[in-house]
Amino acid sequence: MTQPAEAAVATTAERAAMRRALELAAQVPARGPNPRVGCVLLGADGAVLAEGYHRGAGTPHAEVDALRRAAASHGAAAAHGATAVVTLEPCNHHGRTGPCADALLNAGVARVVHAQHDPNPVASGGAARLRAAGVDVLGGLLADEARALNATWTRSLELGRPVVTWKLAASLDGRAAAADGTSRWITGRAARQDVHRLRAGVDAVVVGTGTALADDPDLTVRHVPLTGPQPERVVVGLRDLPASSRLARAAAAGEPVTHLRTHDPHEVLETLGYREHRHVLLEGGPALAAAFWRAGLVDEVVAYVAPVLLGVGAPAVADLGIGTIADAARLDLLDVAVLQRDPADPTDTPTVRLTLRPRKER
User: Fold this and answer.
1) Residue 217 — φ and ψ, nearest 5°?
2) How far is it, in rounded angstroms, from Cα 315 to Cα 324?
3) For the purposes of burial, counting CB atoms within 10 Å of the CB of 110, is it exposed (0-12), middle (13-18) or buried (19 or more)?
4) Active site (annotated) includes residue 63
């Protein structure tokens, strides 16, 4: 949360440095176990000594990156008496790397200005550690912007589990498949490509065994750029997949595919959270989606609705236990987009994408 009283005493140079630090942090994709963090080191005169940012798990944190660059350019004592401007409170724990609070103290930094307070109970406490050692610490500068930069990471830590986005594709009358079980393709080509954009931004893609058996999906990111490894592909349910299926073949080849033999959504997220996944895309099917919804574990819905009528067939979601309109599950609409059809393909269809959030009173 922003702390206006503290942020009001930041200097003009520190404000400019924080905005630059946010730009640096934004260069890294918003996925993976760690937040995006940028750091700018300022000399006593307010001039920039060095910049740094965190590039992903196992790499130097933003503060250490900036300190190393300052030493390389200006000598080992370059940061003595400097101000470190960081988008996230410096960490105070030993993980894949050492505590950034100690690195700043060892470098002789005199002042630290940070934006977002660290919501991770394991890593937080850096500000208190620095203050106890005599460093002038200012927190909350541009905190809202820093939180927005790491919105999913922050939300995951606050929830104590991965954030869940449920993607569904349906006909205008709410069918996910025709009466004969066919479901490729209800939505248009642009919508299918947009799903790959969603996959590229998450840590895991989850389907039930019913969908895996009916559609034999790859669940990989294709057709759009992907920075880093493919999301883990996760199948949930008790039924076996045939060895000839795409997912079974991928697992046999050593690719990141997991079969969780459970029907419990809480158990699924516990397992994925243990693997440090922050964002999960729930792609289907109707029974699994209903289980996650009934458990209160859906945080966002991305619905692709095609101007197609089927009349009968599998619904987009199974029974939610709702018997009357007064108990209807209601969502807030965040965004609407029309994904146009390919004019060169007479079989293609436009699709409307709705981005929604379940209401908190659910």
Assistant:
1) -80, 160
2) 18
3) middle
4) yes
State the DSSP code for 89. Answer: P
CA–CA gap between residue 297 and residue 295 (Å, rounded): 5
- What is the per-residue DSSP string for 192-229? HHHHHHHHHT-SEEEEEHHHHHHH-------SS---SS
Instruction: State yes or no: pLDDT of 97 exceeds 80.
Output: no
Residue closest to 33 by CA, chosen among 127, 157, 196, 175: 157
- The reported pLDDT for the residue numbered 6 is 47
pLDDT at 361 (0 to 100): 58
Listed in sequence order, the DSSP H helices in 52-167 are 62-74, 100-107, 126-132, 143-149, 151-159
For 116-137, the three-class secondary structure string (H helix, E strand, C coil) is ECCCCCCCCCHHHHHHHCCCEE
User: What DSSP string runs through 237-302?
Assistant: SSSPPPTTSHHHHHHHTT-SEEEE----HHHHHHHHHHTT--EEEEEE-HHHHHHHHHTT---EEE
> Tokens for 207?
């389907």
CB-based contact 217:190 (threshold 8 Å): no
Q: What is the pLDDT of residues 159-211, one digit of tens each?
A: 999 999 999 999 999 998 888 876 667 888 899 999 999 999 999 999 999 99
Q: What pTM, to 2 d.p., does this model score? A: 0.90
DSSP string, 176-190: SS-TTS--TTSS-HH
* 3-class DSSP state of 24: helix
Q: Half-sphere exposure of residue 128, counting CA atoms within 13 Å on the CB side?
A: 7
Which tens digits make up the pLDDT trace of 299-332?
A: 999 999 999 898 888 899 999 999 999 999 999 9
Name the active-site residue from 6, 14, 23, 63. Answer: 63
Q: Which helix (H) or strand (E) holds 304?
A: strand 300-306
- Sign, Cα dihedral of 44, 46, 49, 51: positive
